[in-house]
Amino acid sequence: MIREYRTIEEVAGPLMLVKQVEGVKYDELGEIELPNGEVRRCRVLEVNGKNVLVQLFESSAGLNLAQSKVRFLGHGVELPVSPNMLGRVFNGMGEAIDGGAKLIPEKSLDINGTPINPAARYYPSEFIQTGVSTIDGLNTLVRGQKLPIFSGSGLHHANLAAQIARQAKVRGSDSKFAVVFAAVGITFEEADFFISDFKKTGAIDRTVLFINLASDAAIERISTPRMALTAAEYLAFECDMHVLVIITDITNYAEALREVSAARKEVPGRRGYPGYLYTDLATMYERAGRKMGSEGSITMIPILTMPEDDKTHPIPDLTGYITEGQIILSREMYRKGYMPPVDVLPSLSRLKDKGIGAGKTREDHAGTMNQLFSSYARGKEAKELMVVLGEAALTPMDRLYAKFADAFEEKYINQGFYENRSIEETLDLGWELLSILPKSEMKRIKPELVDKYWKTK
Amino acid sequence: MVEGKILKVSGPLVIAEGMREANMFDVVRVGEKRLIGEIIEIHGDRASIQVYEETAGIGRGDRVVSTGAPLSVELGPGLLTNIYDGIQRPLEAMREKCGSNITKGIDEPALDRAKRWHFTPALKFGDMVEAGDIYGTVEETEVLTHKIMVPPGKKGMIVELHEGDFRVTDRIGKLKLEDGTIEEIFLMQKWPVRVSRPYANKLPPVEPMISGQRVIDALFPIAKGGTACVPGPFGSGKTVVQHQLAKWSDVDLVVYIGCGERGNEMTDVLREFPELTDPRTGKSLMMRTVLIANTSDMPVAAREASIYTGITIAEYYRDMGYSVAVIADSTSRWAEALREMSGRLEEMPGEEGYPAYLTSRLAQFYERAGKVVCLGSEGREGALSAIGAVSPQGGDISEPVTQATLRIVKVFWGLDASLAYRRHFPAINWLNSYSLYRDRLSGWFSEHVSKSWMDNTARLLKTLQVESDLQEIVKLVGMDALSADDRLTLEVAQSIREDFLQQNAFEDDDSFTQLDKQDALISLIFSFGDKAQKAIDAGADIQKLSELSVREKIGRAKAVPYASYKQVYAAIDAEITEQIDALVSACAE
Predict the structure, then answer these.
(1) Closest chain B residue to A24 measured between Cα atoms?
(2) Which of A260, A160, A161 is nearest to A220 (CA)?
(3) How far is the C-alpha of B105 from the C-alpha of B112, rounded, in Å?
(4) Model confidence over B410-468: pLDDT tens digits?
(5) Does A388 touch chain B (CB under 8 A)?
């Protein structure tokens, strides 16, 4: 039996206090009926005796304490799912907004999901070719991985994400592939860029979009990524598809979370973000993966903009501790005009070692990757020294390394957003660049592989 | 049985009334689904309960029932090779029962109730026993004999003890206590996780825990029974260091606690360890491993309990006289769980919102490590080493968890992001890391490795220190300003960094290095340095010395298989002499 209450006591920011309620459970979904008949949704944050503290999902404008009614629905927030979600556009609360036919749901799933038993996970190990050298060659993405893009305001992360969504494929397999895209508090233009890019390339048919724009209620952002992930879980683990989830922008999500936390007057952690930000982010990111009993997988690429390009800001910092690596975009590369402006040295894919090598990519992948990294690092150091002391101060070897670093940036990193390189092309390009250096410097590659692949000029 | 009703629910914190009779830290079952919780505060008849499972669906008026016992773990055969969650529920069994996601209210005993173990008694009727004495043994895995011990606090005479195949809940015998009561003996005992298991007395640690990681063994060794921490920003390789220690440390048993970390990492351990061979026993590494996995998406309160669960299991094996390592990744996530509960309890926060008791809780955890004389009449010695990863926010080690940890532990392996960017792994910064055990372990190293070990390793550190000073000068005025001697020092230091300290965890012959091979490798590097120094004194050109082709061979020496390293190293050393001599005679002409 669902009871209605007219006992709203207090509304402050995203929070509302309802008194004298019976039988309400923690985390239950509620509906608020406004005097004009409009219905808004809310969620129970705290049960304290007969008082219930709820969090609104939409704006509180027009709420009237005396006449609004609240009813609790006896279950948590749910998303109706069906395979027909592909190709559709939803708002941040999971309602279709593309004007298409009404979705006939197969079932409804709780958007919070349940943790995956670590004993039931498969370790991600299948190479995904994104066609981007800096990712495939150096920070390889594998199925079931969560690899965020750390960006800054004004950098072209959207182009890179769209490029990945467009080009990504698992080699030698024709398994079903889908993209779930969650726009969290981004502008119309940015969302439009993705939608039109997906439409132009035909990717829209295999895509589910959840759109919460900057103009929508901030508080809705807390559920948008969870809606998207619930859809992704359904497609991956019940429809056996390989799902790529792109969430942009996590920074907006964290700000919404901070808003609720501040309204609850919780003790803040760093920079005013709640102490449970790590756990909260983890419950989203950890939904990526592969598990036993299902063919499908969820690979996640969350995008976040680092405030002031600061990697130690709590949002990128905590994200980095949960995700399996990060692709960092750099303003320096952007200024040089290199696209995608990936900052290679601090970027990392933790799962790369399991996804590369003979049978997956090529036997020389691991060695060349390490060699390119360390040579580029040394080249950059040499260049820094050159700025201070002039070229004459460098040893002949360091001069070669500096030359290598320049060539590496110009050819390897700077591939543009529309070039799709196969992994062989990426590896061969690596060898070509390494041949700037003497063969004896190839310390990180097994000698027999150096002999096999070394290119003489 | 005390029964109360729920008044308030706020995330993992539940407040129930009618609990005046309950004890602090009793385990309670909450709501219809009988979620597991623990009482952490009592005010009048209201008890604050931290719930180890997701509390969605719990509301006012739901029942809370106390079990009357504190949070305990089951100790007995079957722990090894298993994977548990933070409150010792077997994840593998839960997967078989409930599918691949963790649902609520699962009740599954930690030790398999159906499996039979062959028990061989060591004592017989009429033997007098005291706490810690060994009734007999069970071959738990191929590499570890599980000793069934008299539980702490018990003393008396054996009146019955049988050999045979028993389940953990079957009676294997009877014990007549001093007051005349008869007690049944089982393969399994229980112990509350928040209480450390007793021992006879503690000993100073004097033996190193060999990890096969060159930077650790040579520069910053940890003792068996010691404590260490590994702080580092994300991407600096904390987890790889921890995994390497779990794989290769020369201990009898490893308890690996994944506390609030990635699910895939635990899966990696779970899938990889059974495939790996322990170089000491030749058997699978999993046979000596217990895994505790409370990943970051699992309930936060159970994360708080997970490190206690892990260390209690480790203490139990220590009591059998084994050397055990507890590896916790990461204690920062544990501290965050503490902070979240503290916030919900509306306690006055200390630094950065962490509770004021953070330091004392951390100290209590690390103090459970140590080398001890175990209970029991035979005076067995066991050791428990504790290694905790710390994940400081933004890599800033001035934050409270790192600072509180550093005040307690004796070894600090500071991971450095800039080393990681250069792909220098393990990215342990040699300039700020330290080990307070180095002096204490010098006797052991001199006796078991070589007389020169301590001097040589000290020289490694000194060379690296000089290098960092010289680098400052190079940055200011360029390489040309340095004397030939100084440039040689830089070359040797570079060789130390690249050819000795860097170690590839993913390459078979490099992943683990025996101590004698480490010693030989250091000698090889210094052999080049010493001979080159003489050559410089004789007028040789440093540039030519640094370009000698033998240096590439030194660079590859670390990956030479153990079986053949002596011949190969001798050949390289001869080649060093030959090439340098050739250079000297060329410049003499």
Answers:
(1) B59
(2) A260
(3) 19
(4) 999 999 988 888 788 999 999 999 999 999 999 999 999 999 999 999 999 999 999 99
(5) yes
Give the tokens for residue B557.
């020496």
pLDDT digits (tens, 9 = 90+) for B177-197: 999 999 999 999 999 999 999
User: Would you call B95 and A47 a contact, using CB atoms and an 8 Å cutoff?
Assistant: no
Answer whether A121 sits within 8 Å of B60, measured CB to CB. Answer: no
pTM of the model: 0.92
**A449 touching B, CB under 8 A?**
no
Q: Rounded to whole angstroms, what are the CA distances from B15 to A402, B4, B29, B59?
A: 64, 10, 13, 11
H-state helical runs in A220-364:
224-233, 250-263, 277-285, 314-322, 331-336, 352-355
The answer to whether A97 contacts chain B (CB < 8 Å) is: no
The b/e string for B148-187 (b: 16+ C-beta within 10 A; e otherwise) is bbbbbebebebeebeeeebbbebebbbbbeeeeeeeebbb
Residues B227 and B435: beta-carbon distance below 8 Å: no
Question: What is the Cα gyration radius of chain B?
Answer: 28
Distance from CA of A231 to the nearest CA of B (A): 16
Distance CA(B453)–CA(A322), nearest Å, equals: 40
Report the distance separating Cα B492 and Cα B489, nearest Å: 5
Q: Which residues pair with B208 in a beta bridge?
A: B223
Predicted confidence (pLDDT) at residue A457 exceeds the cutoff of 60: no
Total Cβ atoms within 10 A of residue A390: 10
d(CA B553, CA B578): 14
Q: pLDDT class for B290, splitting at 50, 70, 90?
A: very high
A291 CB within 8 Å of a chain B CB: yes
The closest of A255, A154, A253 to A212, measured between CA atoms, is A253
Decide if B235 and A346 are in contact by the 8 Å CB cutoff.
yes
Summarize pLDDT for B479-508 with one digit per residue, the tens. Answer: 888 999 999 999 999 999 999 999 998 888
- ipTM score of complex: 0.88
Pick the closest to residue B409 from B392, B389, B427 (CA basis): B389
Residues A150-173, mean pLDDT to the nearest whole number? 88
Residues 217-276 of A with CB under 8 A from B: 266-270, 275-276
Share of chain A above pLDDT 90, in %: 64
Q: Which pLDDT does position A207 carry in this prediction?
A: 92
Using the Cβ of A321 and the Cβ atoms of chain B, whether some distance falls under 8 Å is answered with yes
Q: Given B101, B340, B395, which is nearest A312 (Cβ)?
A: B395
Using an 8 Å CB-CB cutoff, list chain A residues near B99. Answer: 120, 293
The DSSP-derived string for B516-528 is HHHHHHHHHHHHH
Inter-chain contact B297–A311, Cβ cutoff 8 Å? Answer: no
- The three-state DSSP-derived secondary structure of B138-158 is EEEECCEEEEEECCCCCEEEE
Q: Which residues of B touch A312 (CB under 8 A)?
A: 233, 393-396
Q: What single letter denotes the amino acid at residue B458? A: A
Cβ atoms A300, A165 nearer than 8 A: no
A39 C-beta neighbours (distance < 10 Å), count? 11
pLDDT in tens, A14-72: 899 999 999 899 999 999 999 999 999 999 999 999 999 999 988 888 888 889 999 99
Judged against a pLDDT cut of 90, whether residue B118 lies above it is answered with yes
Task: Please name which of B280, B246, B250 lies closest in space to residue B265, comparing C-alpha atoms.
Answer: B246
Q: Is the pLDDT of residue B535 over 80?
A: yes
**Residues of B in Cβ contact (< 8 Å) with A116:** 100-102, 263, 297
Compare all CA atoms of chain B with the CA of A325 and give the residue at the minimum distance.
Answer: B235
E strand map for B307-456: 323-329, 370-373, 381-390, 411-412, 434-435
Give the full edge-to-edge strand order of the sheet including A348-349.
A89-91, A207-213, A177-186, A242-248, A297-305, A149-151, A325-328, A348-349
Q: Give percent of chain B above pLDDT 90.
A: 78
